[in-house]
Amino acid sequence: FAHVLSDWPWLTNTSFLIRGIILAGLFTTLVGGSLAGIQRGFDELLGYAALFNLACTVSMLGVGGDEAIITVIFGLVVRSLALVLIAISMSTIRLIRTQTGFSQVGAVAYQMPIATTGLILGGLTLAGVPFTAGFAPYWQLLQSMAETQWWGALVLFIGSLGVSIGYLRGLRAALTPASIETKGERAEAILKVDLQEPTGLLVLIVVLITIILVVGLYPGLLLKLIQPFAAELTLPLW
User: Are 159 and 34 in contact (CB under 8 A)?
Assistant: First the structure.
């Protein structure tokens, strides 16, 4: 190992490593966000949205600064809440729809409005949309990135926009009347609210939605909980 470091001293160059981390994070946010905006199903969309969100964390590690550690921890907690909310919501929707492609979820928002709300809100949280719990760490990352390189902040915005567009397209699909076949002709199903969500899953979804919205409006509540842990952590890059 020592021989490797002597042959390639750039491996121990902290500034080189930090630039590499930032570039890798920004590239991944751009790819994940852009691809999320053109997906045709919630399964694929979740993968790219999670990739975007993880890349934001990597970018924050590279940017550093006084607020980096607490921002990263805040983001990881929010990411966990959003992924759990999405997972429960998708599991609930799968009780009546075996497929979650946009073409298969027509009118599901009228049958499972709370689960649909949880699914979309979880995705927008991963994107860092305002009034969700994901906005605070995303906004801090944008500010920190803009102080050093404005184009990096632009890349982050494009990635977030892509994820948001993807989930808004999913919401539109869930609100669109399902097509039915009537004597060889296609017709639109009549829209009516017909709640089919199990009580247990419904309660979990409502609790998670409430937490995400409350933290989005009052991020200081979560900040107070994680500050003691953040104070004990240090990262050797900065």
Answer: yes
- Residue 156's alpha-carbon distances to 89, 142, 152, 215, 221, in angstroms, are 27, 7, 6, 22, 26
From the centroid of its chain, how far is CA 168?
A: 13
Task: Specify which of 110-114, 177-181, 206-210 reaches the highest per-range mean pLDDT.
Answer: 206-210
**Residue 13 predicted with pLDDT over 60:** no
User: In one letter, which amino acid is 92?
Assistant: T
Q: Hey, what's the torsion of the CAs at 75, 26, 24, 164, to 10 degrees?
A: 60
How many angstroms separate the CA atoms of 222 and 238, rounded?
A: 25
Structure tokens at 103: 């073409």
> Which residues are CB-contacts of 202 (< 8 A; sequence separation ≥ 6)?
92, 114, 115
Residue type, 154: L
- What is the rounded average pLDDT of the residues 200-217? 95
Q: How many Cβ atoms from other residues are within 10 Å of residue 203's Cβ?
A: 12
pLDDT digits 0-9 by tens, 82-112: 999 999 999 999 988 888 899 888 889 988 9
